[in-house]
Amino acid sequence: MGCASKSLFTLHFPPPPRPYLAAATNSAAPWPSPPNLTPLFSSLHLNSPPQFGSRVLPPLKHFLTAPTGGSDAGNNNNSGGGWNNPFDPSSWWWHDDDSGGSSHNLALFSSIFLAAVACCFCHLRLAYALASEEDAESVWEVKGGKWTKLAPDFVRDAFVAYGGGGLGSISFESLGLQCKSLFVQLMLPEGFPDSVTSDYLDYSLWRAVQGVASQVSGVLATQALLYAVGLGKGAIPTAAALNWVLKDGIGYLSKIMLSKYGRHFDVNPKGWRLFADLLENAAFGMEMLTPVFPNHFLLIGAAAGAGRSAAALIQAATRSCFYAGFAAQRNFAEVIAKGEAQGMVSKFIGIGLGIALANQIGSSTSLGLASFSLVTCIHMFCNLKSYQAIQLRTLNPYRASLVFSEYLLSGQAPPVKDVNEEEPLFPAVPFLNWKPANKGQPTVLSSEAKDAAAEIEQRLQLGCKLSDLINNKEDVHALFNLYKEEGYILTEHRGRYCVVLKETSSLQDMLKALFHVNYLYWLEKNAGIEAKGTSIDCRPGGRLEMSLDYVRREFDIIKTDGESVGWVTDGLIARPAPNRIRPVYEASSVAC
Questions:
Q1: SS3 for 503-543, per residue?
Q2: pLDDT digits (tens, 9 = 90+) for 62-82
Q3: Smallest Cα–Cα separation from 460: which of 415, 405, 413?
Q4: Handedness of CA 224, 225, 230, 236 (dihedral sign)
Q5: Exposure pattern of 169-179 as b/e (b: 16+ CB <10 Å)?
Q6: Three-state SS string across 365-403, please?
Q7: Cis peptide before 193 (omega within 30 of 0)
Q8: Are the beta carbons of 491 and 476 closer than 8 angstroms?
Q9: Alpha-carbon distance 521 to 106, whole Å?
Q10: What is the C-alpha separation between 193 and 145, in angstroms, rounded?
Q11: Cβ contacts of residue 451 below 8 Å, gap of 6+?
Q12: I need a surface site. Which of 4, 101, 188, 543 has the fewest CB within 10 A?
């Protein structure tokens, strides 16, 4: 019945000729030949032909093919015979001169009508049954990260979007879904959320809000600058333009001078980025004060311009670190493109709100400063939340020490999220590392591992000069022989862990050296084994020899465990001093 109902609804009959067209023609004209009609059940696709009685088909054929002669007494306009209007009450469809034929026709019409109703009922029941199936048996279309549920359409013999259809399906709800889909395509990377990491969305949302606040601050500061140069008080435009160029020109020097410190931004991008936001807001605040001190416009404007230029450099340098971590499918360029699109939307909204707020403030300095302070608080709070949402997977000295220390204490590598939540934003300034109260979430990080990571970072020195550590030939030979096959030389000097890097040292060698440092710290704190002297520690059973043997056996294991929980263990992100050595085995040839 299901197959038959499907084909029955797709039958197409040619429309019958209209009676008035036949009456308008010459009565002497010959009758047109009857049209070639397709039998009613010719398009049905059944496993076996339908079994109908022989007395049903002949009358049906008689009705569907017009007689070539005779006339209907009830239709004066069709005196020549031919096709009658089937919807005319006086036609042969409803009245027939033969009473027996009339009852037979009525029975046939009733049978066809009841069969059609039955087919429609079966079709609707089948559609309802398919629609009520479990989602596990449904058909879905996947395009990037968008999943669309499909449902069978028996009329068109195809799968269509579930709930979709023609014009009747257009509603405010469907229009909203289409707008949402368009927004996701424009603002988020293709395949979201599978194409990025789990922290990408939180970061993007907080950055969007802070972008709006930043633009509002910029508009207010620009308005204050214009009042300071006297733009609204009849000042000469040329003089105002000259002051503006000088202010920006002096400010650009800060960006040039700060560029040489770019290697520091990779190690602690969160802290530097938050510092850049503080610097940017301080520059905006200085510009807001220019109407109070209009005679010092150039000095204040140049200082503010220098701060904004430095902030822009740091922001651009650290942004790439964040985007690289978000690209879970190596879609680095697309993540950057979508981030720029999100930034433009925030700027559009922020500029509009800033203009509206500036119109309300006018030239009132006190009201402008109050509004600026409120917007700055919103800006910095959103920045802080966005950086806390980021989960960096690369290993800098602090994160690596925390991972290694926890591994040495518990035998397992800690998750990325726990380590990032524990990492301070400003390691060099402890009192600025405010953290919210613990909400009671379980963490695998022990207090011993946290203390070890903080102390190791303070005592670690990468890229030391060998001549500052060793003063005799015996110690030099002992270190060279012990670390002959390594890319680094590690020793302890005046309570500090000093790592001497060879000329061929790589990021992987620095990561291995840091693991070695963590094991030395573990021996000191947990086994009570302290340094006794360089040459003594390099002997078999000595502190350096024993620890190096352990590092060679366990380093690849900790790397594998770290990678299994999401860490990138291809090297250490650090800023070592530029000192390198090329070790040889003759004392006179040692280069330091």
A1: CCCCHHHHHHHHHHHHHHHHHHHHHCCCCCCHHHHCCCCCH
A2: 444 444 444 444 444 444 444
A3: 405
A4: negative
A5: eeeeeeeeeee
A6: HHHHHHHHHHHHHHHHHHHHHHHHHCCCCCECHHHHHHH
A7: yes
A8: no
A9: 102
A10: 6
A11: none
A12: 101
Residue 364 near residue 232 (C-beta atoms within 8 A) = no
Please indicate, yes or no, whether the overall pTM of this predicted structure exceeds 0.70: no
Q: What are the pLDDT digits (tens) for 23-43?
A: 444 444 444 444 444 444 444
353 burial (CB, 10 Å; 0-12 / 13-18 / 19+) is: middle
Of 359, 376, 410, give the one whose Cα is nearest residue 288: 376
Residue with tokens 């509002």: 216
Q: For residue 201, what are the contacts with CB-CB under 8 A and spacing of at least 6? A: 193
Per the CB < 8 A criterion, the answer to whether 379 and 215 are in contact is no
Cβ atoms within 10 Å, residue 238: 8
Burial 333-352, CB ≥16 within 10 A → b, else e: ebbbebbeebbeebbebbee
User: Distance between CA 221 and CA 535 in Å, rounded?
Assistant: 64
Residue 263 three-state SS: helix
β partners of residue 460: 497
Question: Cα separation of 174 and 538, whole Å?
Answer: 74
Q: Which two tokens stand for residue 135?
A: 């989602």
- Please state, as a whole number, how many other Cβ atoms lie within 10 Å of the Cβ of residue 576: 20
Alpha helices by DSSP H, 423-506: 447-459, 473-482
Type of residue found at 561: D
Give me the residue label for tokens 């800023």.
575
Residue 350 vs residues 96, 219, 312, 374: alpha-carbon distances, Å? 81, 9, 18, 14
Tokens 């330091």 label which residue?
Answer: 592
State which H helix or E strand residue 276 sits in.
helix 269-288
End-to-end CA separation in angstroms for the chain: 93
Distances (CA, A) of 302 to 236, 282, 293, 499: 20, 13, 14, 42
Give the count of alpha carbons within 13 A of 84, CB side only. 24
Q: Pick from 255, 267, 377, 395: which is nearest to 316 by CA? A: 255
CB distance 147 to 184 below 8 Å: no
Amino acid at 549: D
Q: pLDDT-derived band of residue 105, with 50, 70 and 90 as boundaries?
A: low
- Do residues 385 and 436 lie in contact, with contact meaning Cβ atoms separated by under 8 Å? no
Contact 334, 323 (CB under 8 A): no
Q: Which two tokens stand for residue 284?
A: 């905006």
Cβ contacts of 222 within 8 Å, gap of 6 or more: 287
Q: At what angle do helices 297-326 and 332-361 cross, to 10 degrees?
A: 150
Most confident residue range from 11-20, 200-209, 483-492: 483-492
Query: How is residue 178 written in tokens?
Result: 């289409």
Paired tokens of 491: 């020793």
Tokens matching residue 427: 């390691």
DSSP state letter for 40: T
Q: Are 206 and 389 in contact (CB under 8 A)?
A: yes
List alpha helices for 327-364, DSSP H: 332-361
Q: What's the one-letter identity of residue 270?
A: K
**Token reading at 441:** 């979430």
Residues in Cβ contact with 140 at an 8 Å cutoff, skipping those fewer than 6 apart: 147, 148, 149, 150
Q: How far apart are CA 463 and CA 469, in angstroms?
A: 12
